[in-house]
């Protein structure tokens, strides 16, 4: 979806946690079956706030929760399922009324969600999915397949339809990494004179992106392009290409819509990024959690909800509004 104005940047509310001894179920409806006033503590668990994407996820969720009259805390799993499990234990101990969770692992986080459910705490997943439906009250994610497709199409515009290229792949434990990579492949394999000569895992990390790019460039010095699973890896690749004096010959594409990526587009160093509407679905997750705590229903008919991504290039970069939003 190359047009950016059609994406509605929705507002909403994030996650919740009761500080009193009442259960979440007791707060959902009043005696007449209508809405009751929810409140309490929300536990928000993100991956790693040193990444501006995840920082925004936690900041938006916390602000929306407080706006709706809840208290909130934000913690980070750093992608580690043991840490995530301990944070879920803390949420249970603190009598959280709801948990907003960015899962550390598509399969490994299933147990954490089950543990929260056993404690009668509803879980709302953001950004990443788990490999089991019916456990979380909602799973709100970017439409990664759609985002990868529009990113790959723009990459072709920048790089051309022939030559050698490499790919930087995200964390294998995150389904988003494979979805984006497969989306790139679907588009790029339509051009038989394009050849992928290298692919390496850089785990969404800028430093790893830099180091893996150095190795890939040494092995394949004639590449024309780098397609990356996220902005942090892309920015690491740009740093490596700069050091090698190759940035003028090698075009790089990103994914996330981070502030640093926006700056790199403005500087002419990054060809494009694909904005994930993290601010939108973080707010929506809060809104649905609030609805569930007050009424027993999220207000949405489906558990899994995908939000379309937005292509940002030099042509529309001026319409970017940090963090991770565009003008509607």
UniProtKB/TrEMBL annotation:
PANTHER family: D-ALLOSE-BINDING PERIPLASMIC PROTEIN-RELATED (PTHR46847). This is D-ribose ABC transporter substrate-binding protein. Residues 42-297 form the Periplasmic binding protein domain. Residues 1-24 form the signal peptide. Keywords: Signal. Coiled coil: none annotated. It is found in: Cell envelope. CDD domains: PBP1_TmRBP-like. PROSITE patterns: PROKAR_LIPOPROTEIN (PS51257). InterPro entries: Peripla_BP_I (IPR028082), SBP_2_dom (IPR025997). Belongs to the bacterial solute-binding protein 2 family. The keyword Signal applies. The lineage of its organism: Bacteria, Bacillati, Actinomycetota, Actinomycetes, Micromonosporales. Pfam families: Peripla_BP_4. Its main location: other.
